[in-house]
Specification:
Elements: H1 3-23, E1 27-33, H2 52-60, E2 62-68, H3 74-83, H4 107-112, H5 129-135, E3 139-145, E4 164-168, E5 181-184, E6 187-190, H6 223-236, E7 244-249, H7 261-271, H8 289-313, E8 320-326, H9 338-341, H10 360-363, E9 367-370, E10 379-386, H11 390-398, H12 411-414, E11 426-430, E12 436-441, E13 444-448, E14 459-462, H13 478-491
């Protein structure tokens, strides 16, 4: 071959290889914490709890400051994430324990009878993130907490686009981090733990200041550790010819307060003496509640560090999109002290303003996105988005057919560019906690609460000047209130499930 043709051949070969590399879809590691507040990471202002690995991801990528969960509680938020449908259109709009089956809250009975375990199943016709990515050639895995379909129903992970599942099927069972069993695909896996029902308290004769009185609440097999082992194993044993989606739905730091003792001791040294939690606000007691809670978040951070280290070891870190977020704002139950940690960051930490409520502290969550060479490092995005944007975003990056959703792709934003399509407004509705609606429209936030009592009045807040939502401006801006009212009317569809109806809307 003449030299000039050889040079041209190599040139075009280089272009082709470069193009091939550029078009290779990324692996996707989607990590979702459980009840982690906006202010509980160092990169979001946390001063006590150490999160060096997540802070490193934030430095290596983009940190979003105006991002929202799908709902203020667990199950509907996860549904929104996986389907791209907001709660005005969602099948699941609240935590639905499917109580018509029987005594589903009987922990021991549910252990023995899978017919009592798990939540109401999402329909077989539901299009999920897993199914979308499977259609694009992805291997799909879920490690962690499901909560969208009881065992032996059409709503189990394996029947909703997940090739491999390990973790809690049932969010009630996740109220013990040392459970008797977990699930691997559709088989129950026994753990080396005794049955301790959630809500168990110290015995009457126990000394609450004696750490040994709490021994029953720390057993052998710690569920988050077992899940981590399976997540690492999935990455190691993946089909290396195909990209993967690993949806890691951690149960941390959702109460109960349970974490390996070294993490407790670390924060005992940092926090100092504290009063024991005796279980008066639900879940399990703990002799050092603040230290335990901080340790749980630190433990989760260390798990993220292990995952990143393995991706680098496998040589796939550079082509893996990592997204980290939380399903809703911080809790107020189980011995957690959000005021001490300033868990909601710039938003109020009091009950009524965090988990379970559509004020900012209940639904604004951290979102970190990292993908070396694609997402600009050390960047901050003020783009206003929500969980239902993630499905079209991930679909586009995966080269999948983008399904019709309520979301808008964040791909330009991830690349540091202006969004091509933006929302006219973001929407939430929540039939629990006395019935709520909320709309984010630019700088404005409208909230309805106490809707189960017939209330339709809208509170109005200017988030640019009042992010803590302390000053209701509804009387000063009736025109904006009317725009928000129309948005609420437009976004709401009558739910299929009767318990999610709000009578003042669904007559």
């Amino acid at each position: 071959m003449p030299l000039r043709y050889a040079v041209l051949f190599c040139f075009f070969l280089t272009i082709a290889c470069t193009k091939s590399r550029e078009q290779k879809p990324p692996n996707i590691l989607l990590i979702m914490a459980d009840d982690l507040g906006y202010g509980e990471l160092g990169s979001y202002g946390q001063q006590v709890i150490q999160t060096p690995h997540l802070d490193a991801l934030a430095r290596e990528g983009t940190r979003f400051t105006n991002f929202y969960a799908g709902s203020p509680v667990c199950a509907p938020s996860r549904y929104v994430l996986l389907t791209g449908r907001h709660t005005g259109h969602a099948f699941i709009r609240g935590n639905d324990e499917w109580t018509e089956r029987g005594d589903v809250w009987n922990y021991k009975a549910a252990i023995k009878n899978p017919e009592l375990e798990g939540q109401r199943p999402i329909p077989a016709s539901t299009l999920t993130m897993g199914e979308v990515l499977q259609s694009a050639g992805y291997q799909t895995a879920l490690v962690g907490k499901w909560g969208l379909g009881a065992p032996n129903t059409e709503g189990t992970p394996n029947r909703q686009g997940i090739d491999y599942f390990f973790g809690y099927n049932c969010q009630r069972q996740a109220h013990n981090l040392y459970p008797v069993h977990l699930w691997e695909n559709e088989l129950k896996v026994a753990l080396n733990n005794d049955t301790v029902p959630p809500g168990t308290k110290l015995t009457a004769e126990a000394n609450p200041y004696n750490p040994q009185a709490y021994d029953a609440f720390t057993q052998t097999d710690y569920a988050p550790q077992k899940m981590q082992e399976k997540a690492l194993e999935f990455i190691k044993n993946r089909d290396k010819e195909s990209p993967f989606l690993l949806y890691y739905a951690s149960p941390l730091p959702h109460v109960p307060l349970q974490v390996p003792q070294p993490y407790v001791e670390k924060y005992r040294d940092i926090i100092g003496e504290e009063e024991p939690y005796l279980g008066q606000n639900g879940y399990f007691p703990h002799p050092y509640p603040k230290a335990a809670y901080a340790g749980m978040i630190n433990y989760l951070d260390d798990q993220v560090g292990e995952l990143v280290a393995l991706l680098k070891q496998e040589g796939i870190y550079e082509n893996t999109l990592i997204i980290f977020t939380s399903d809703n704002g911080p809790t107020y139950a189980g011995g957690v002290d959000p005021e001490y940690f300033n868990s909601a960051g710039p938003f109020p930490n009091a009950y009524g303003r965090t988990k379970g409520f559509t004020y900012e502290g209940g639904i604004r969550v951290p979102l970190i996105a990292s993908w070396p060479g694609h997402i600009p490092s050390e960047s901050i995005s003020q783009h206003i988005g929500a969980f239902y944007d993630l499905l079209p975003t991930i679909s586009e990056l995966a080269g999948a057919v983008i399904p019709q959703t309520d979301g808008k792709s964040l791909v330009p934003v991830l690349y540091g560019k202006q969004a091509k399509n933006t929302h006219n407004f973001l929407y939430w509705e929540f039939p629990s906690y006395n019935g709520q609606q909320a709309v984010r429209m630019g700088r404005w936030k409208g909230i309805r609460k106490d809707m189960m009592e017939g209330n339709l009045a809208i509170e109005l807040y200017d988030l640019e000047n009042d992010p803590a939502e302390q000053h209701n401006l509804a009387n000063k801006h009736p025109d904006i209130v009317e725009r928000i009212r129309k948005a609420m009317e437009e976004a709401h569809e009558e739910p299929e499930i009767a318990k999610f109806k709000i009578p003042v809307l669904d007559k």
